[in-house]
From TrEMBL:
InterPro entries on file: DUF4876 (IPR032627), Ig-like_fold (IPR013783)
Leader sequence residues: 1-22
Gene3D superfamilies referenced in this protein's UniProt entry, alphabetically: Immunoglobulins
Protein name stated in the entry: DUF4876 domain-containing protein
PROSITE patterns for this protein: PROKAR_LIPOPROTEIN
Superkingdom, natural source: Bacteria
UniProt keywords, alphabetically: Signal
Transmembrane feature ranges: none
Pfam families associated with the record: DUF4876
Taxonomic source organism: Marinilabilia rubra
Length: 417
């Protein structure tokens, strides 16, 4: 009896061990391999793709891995977790290198991006990415505050939004005639019903709102290392400093938006509650707004993308979203040629919503986002690359993933010192 009992227990232990081993095998996740082939756009000659870092970012946890390309421009990532990744690479060119490669003797950064690369366990994948870019802009978007104030009373909401435009060059640049546009679609993946815009976004981008800096040509100079602030309402929302920990004083902004009179002149209605007029601050000129009634020039608080552009002969050419069977007023957008764009920033809802990008890679090869939903008082500000004779030169690689950082409180005309 004792031997039989011991024998049965031994057999049982073997089966339990085999069961645990089988479970462990079932729980093992097959890893993936990825080859990234780096190429250079045809407009650049004589550039080597060897010894360039390629980065892959997991869209779930934002984990980043990197690999160096070999002499043939191939970067290999072995045994990585399955999932969705954004793949990127960049190459900084000096003035001499850029001139030899493209004929443009200005410092520039070439970017290559492929978003939403799906990697399956146990499968080898390959992706091709192409380095491309343009010379750095004289005017750049320094700060973009759209997320809304962290105000428990919701009395401020998003009325304190602003865009700061900075002169990143060593020469005076005049803001007169500069356009500022908010791009479509305004909402980007924060709702399951959101869909990307069904329009090609290589030669054109599409605006739902366009404003223009007034002036006849040389009325509004921006000195090197200085900026202008364009706000929704030129109001001191800090209430003489009482709310300085959640919002900003915009009463000294350079320009504000005001659309009530303009909309009324078109037979439409504005919003006197959200759209205020400070008579001491010049108004931006209203150009385009695809909201028929009760509209104003605010930015979406969850995900907004903007551009600044110039075109002396710009005329409104509307195009409808082709996904709409019967488009209404808000489904029409104004076309902007990407060659007119001076600078732009693509802000998404989170790391997983890159399918909603509104800017082509030559303007913004990446994208950025603010964690923590909306009404956080957080802003995005361009990083400082270096200082020359006391003048800050801001980072401008045409990739907002690299160029911008999320800050806890907006800092118009500031750098966070």
């Amino acid at each position: 009896m004792k031997k039989s009992f011991l024998f049965r227990n031994a057999i049982l232990a073997i089966f339990i061990a085999l069961g645990f081993s089988a479970c462990e095998k079932d729980d093992e996740v097959s890893l993936a391999n990825l080859d990234v082939q780096l190429e250079v756009a045809e407009s650049f000659t004589g550039l080597s793709t060897g010894e360039v870092y390629v980065y892959i970012t997991n869209t779930i946890d934002n984990g980043v891995d990197s690999a160096l390309t070999n002499a043939d421009g191939l970067a290999q990532f072995m045994n990585i977790a399955p999932g969705t990744y954004n793949v990127s690479a960049s190459m900084n060119l000096t003035e001499e290198e850029a001139g030899a490669a493209s004929g443009y003797y200005e410092e520039m950064t070439l970017n290559a991006v492929e978003n939403d690369v799906q990697l399956m366990g146990g499968i080898d994948s390959q992706v091709f990415i192409t380095l491309d870019g343009e010379p750095a802009s004289s005017l750049v978007i320094k700060e973009f505050y759209y997320n809304g104030a962290n105000d428990p009373t919701y009395s401020i909401m998003f009325k304190d939004q602003f865009v700061e435009i900075y002169n990143n060059s060593s020469e005076v640049v005049y803001a007169d005639g500069l356009y500022l546009a908010s791009l479509a679609p305004s909402r980007n993946g924060n709702d399951e019903n959101d869909v990307p815009l069904s329009l090609e976004m290589t030669e054109y981008v599409y605006a739902s709102k366009i404003l223009q800096v007034p002036g006849s040509g040389e009325e509004y100079p921006i000195q090197p290392g200085e900026s202008i602030v364009v706000c929704l309402n030129a109001v001191d929302y800090t209430n003489d400093g009482a709310n300085a920990d959640i919002t900003v004083d915009l009463s000294t902004a350079d320009f504000e938006t005001y659309a009530v009179d303009w909309l009324q002149s078109l037979g439409r209605t504005g919003s006197a509650y959200f759209d205020l007029d400070n008579v001491d601050v010049p108004n931006m000129e209203c150009v385009y707004l695809n909201i028929e009634n009760y509209g104003w020039f605010n930015f979406d608080i969850s995900s907004s993308s903007i551009v600044i552009f110039r075109n002396e002969n710009f005329e409104i050419e509307q195009v409808a979203d082709p996904s709409k069977d019967v488009p209404d007023f808000s489904d029409y957008f104004a076309k902007i040629n990407v060659n007119d764009v001076v600078d732009g920033i693509d802000m998404m809802y989170n790391a997983e919503t890159s399918a909603f990008k509104r800017l082509p890679e030559k303007i913004d090869a990446g994208f950025n986002f603010i964690e923590g939903e909306t009404y956080t008082s957080k802003s995005v500000r361009r990083k400082v690359a270096k200082e020359v004779d006391g003048r800050r030169i801001l980072l401008d690689t045409n990739n907002s993933s690299n160029d911008f950082e999320v800050i806890d409180l907006p800092t118009p005309r500031g750098f966070g010192e």
